[in-house]
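U., I forgot to send this yesterday:
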Amino acid sequence: MAFVTSNQTAADVARGVSRLLMQQGFSPILEFTLANGRRLDVAALGPDGTMLGVEIKVALADLRGDTKWPDYLEFCEHFYFAIPPDFPDHHVPDGTGLIVADRYGGAIVRPSPAWKIHPSRRKAVTLSFAKVAAERLALMLARNGDLAKLTAETE
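Result:
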Protein backbone atom coordinates (compact mmCIF):
# COMPACT_ATOMS: atom_id res chain seq x y z
CA MET A 1 0.00 0.00 0.00
CA ALA A 2 1.34 3.44 -0.91
CA PHE A 3 1.97 5.98 1.82
CA VAL A 4 -0.36 8.91 1.26
CA THR A 5 -0.32 10.96 4.42
CA SER A 6 0.68 10.63 8.03
CA ASN A 7 -1.56 10.60 11.07
CA GLN A 8 0.66 13.42 12.32
CA THR A 9 0.12 16.93 11.05
CA ALA A 10 2.91 19.26 10.01
CA ALA A 11 2.14 21.29 13.14
CA ASP A 12 2.72 18.21 15.31
CA VAL A 13 6.06 17.56 13.62
CA ALA A 14 7.05 21.24 13.91
CA ARG A 15 6.32 21.14 17.64
CA GLY A 16 8.46 18.04 18.13
CA VAL A 17 11.27 19.46 15.99
CA SER A 18 11.22 22.69 18.00
CA ARG A 19 11.39 20.78 21.27
CA LEU A 20 14.31 18.69 19.99
CA LEU A 21 16.22 21.72 18.75
CA MET A 22 15.74 23.60 22.03
CA GLN A 23 17.09 20.57 23.91
CA GLN A 24 20.14 20.80 21.64
CA GLY A 25 20.69 24.48 22.44
CA PHE A 26 19.08 25.93 19.30
CA SER A 27 16.45 28.69 19.22
CA PRO A 28 13.81 27.80 16.62
CA ILE A 29 11.20 29.88 14.86
CA LEU A 30 8.56 28.60 12.44
CA GLU A 31 7.92 29.81 8.91
CA PHE A 32 11.07 31.86 8.33
CA THR A 33 11.35 33.57 4.94
CA LEU A 34 14.81 33.72 3.38
CA ALA A 35 16.20 36.49 1.17
CA ASN A 36 15.49 34.40 -1.95
CA GLY A 37 11.77 34.28 -1.07
CA ARG A 38 11.81 30.64 0.02
CA ARG A 39 10.28 29.85 3.40
CA LEU A 40 11.76 27.34 5.83
CA ASP A 41 9.26 25.43 7.94
CA VAL A 42 11.65 25.72 10.89
CA ALA A 43 14.77 27.87 11.16
CA ALA A 44 16.97 27.67 14.22
CA LEU A 45 19.94 29.63 15.48
CA GLY A 46 22.55 27.75 17.49
CA PRO A 47 24.49 29.06 20.49
CA ASP A 48 27.51 29.65 18.26
CA GLY A 49 25.47 31.36 15.51
CA THR A 50 25.00 28.23 13.42
CA MET A 51 21.96 28.51 11.15
CA LEU A 52 19.91 25.33 10.79
CA GLY A 53 16.95 24.81 8.46
CA VAL A 54 14.21 22.19 8.51
CA GLU A 55 11.68 21.26 5.84
CA ILE A 56 8.72 19.26 7.18
CA LYS A 57 7.07 16.56 5.10
CA VAL A 58 4.02 14.56 6.16
CA ALA A 59 2.83 13.47 2.71
CA LEU A 60 4.88 11.41 0.26
CA ALA A 61 3.48 13.28 -2.75
CA ASP A 62 4.67 16.56 -1.21
CA LEU A 63 8.17 15.18 -0.71
CA ARG A 64 8.35 13.73 -4.23
CA GLY A 65 7.15 16.98 -5.79
CA ASP A 66 9.47 19.23 -3.78
CA THR A 67 12.14 20.67 -6.04
CA LYS A 68 12.75 23.85 -4.03
CA TRP A 69 14.66 22.44 -1.07
CA PRO A 70 18.13 22.90 -2.65
CA ASP A 71 17.40 26.66 -2.61
CA TYR A 72 17.64 26.57 1.21
CA LEU A 73 21.20 25.27 1.31
CA GLU A 74 22.92 28.58 0.59
CA PHE A 75 21.31 30.00 3.76
CA CYS A 76 21.84 27.09 6.18
CA GLU A 77 24.89 25.47 7.67
CA HIS A 78 22.79 22.40 8.43
CA PHE A 79 19.64 21.27 6.63
CA TYR A 80 17.19 18.57 7.68
CA PHE A 81 14.00 17.03 6.47
CA ALA A 82 11.63 16.26 9.33
CA ILE A 83 9.08 13.49 9.02
CA PRO A 84 6.61 11.77 11.36
CA PRO A 85 7.46 8.32 12.75
CA ASP A 86 5.24 6.44 10.28
CA PHE A 87 6.70 8.14 7.18
CA PRO A 88 8.84 5.94 4.87
CA ASP A 89 12.27 7.52 5.40
CA HIS A 90 13.92 5.87 2.39
CA HIS A 91 12.26 8.54 0.22
CA VAL A 92 14.10 11.40 1.94
CA PRO A 93 16.90 12.70 -0.31
CA ASP A 94 20.43 11.54 0.46
CA GLY A 95 22.89 14.26 1.40
CA THR A 96 20.47 15.89 3.85
CA GLY A 97 19.89 15.43 7.55
CA LEU A 98 16.83 13.58 8.81
CA ILE A 99 14.74 14.20 11.91
CA VAL A 100 11.86 11.97 12.95
CA ALA A 101 9.41 13.82 15.19
CA ASP A 102 5.95 13.80 16.64
CA ARG A 103 4.24 16.40 18.81
CA TYR A 104 6.18 15.35 21.91
CA GLY A 105 9.74 15.48 20.60
CA GLY A 106 12.06 14.13 17.99
CA ALA A 107 15.37 12.52 17.18
CA ILE A 108 18.09 13.17 14.66
CA VAL A 109 18.19 9.95 12.68
CA ARG A 110 20.75 11.13 10.13
CA PRO A 111 23.06 14.08 10.84
CA SER A 112 23.14 16.88 8.32
CA PRO A 113 26.24 17.56 6.32
CA ALA A 114 27.79 20.93 7.13
CA TRP A 115 27.69 23.69 4.53
CA LYS A 116 29.60 26.94 4.62
CA ILE A 117 27.79 30.25 4.44
CA HIS A 118 29.62 33.35 3.29
CA PRO A 119 30.18 35.59 6.36
CA SER A 120 28.14 38.46 4.92
CA ARG A 121 25.21 36.14 4.17
CA ARG A 122 25.45 34.59 7.63
CA LYS A 123 25.25 38.08 9.17
CA ALA A 124 22.25 39.01 7.03
CA VAL A 125 20.39 35.78 7.87
CA THR A 126 21.17 36.15 11.58
CA LEU A 127 19.95 39.77 11.64
CA SER A 128 16.79 38.81 9.78
CA PHE A 129 16.20 35.93 12.20
CA ALA A 130 16.62 38.25 15.21
CA LYS A 131 14.27 40.85 13.72
CA VAL A 132 11.56 38.29 12.93
CA ALA A 133 11.82 36.72 16.40
CA ALA A 134 11.64 40.12 18.14
CA GLU A 135 8.66 41.27 16.05
CA ARG A 136 6.78 38.04 16.72
CA LEU A 137 7.38 38.38 20.46
CA ALA A 138 6.19 41.99 20.45
CA LEU A 139 3.04 41.06 18.49
CA MET A 140 2.29 38.17 20.85
CA LEU A 141 2.72 40.36 23.92
CA ALA A 142 0.61 43.12 22.38
CA ARG A 143 -2.22 40.67 21.66
CA ASN A 144 -2.10 39.52 25.28
CA GLY A 145 -1.95 43.07 26.63
CA ASP A 146 1.52 42.38 28.07
CA LEU A 147 3.56 44.81 25.97
CA ALA A 148 4.79 46.51 29.14
CA LYS A 149 6.73 43.30 29.87
CA LEU A 150 9.13 44.17 27.06
CA THR A 151 10.36 47.24 28.90
CA ALA A 152 9.92 45.99 32.45
CA GLU A 153 12.27 43.03 31.90
CA THR A 154 15.05 45.23 30.51
CA GLU A 155 15.14 47.72 33.38
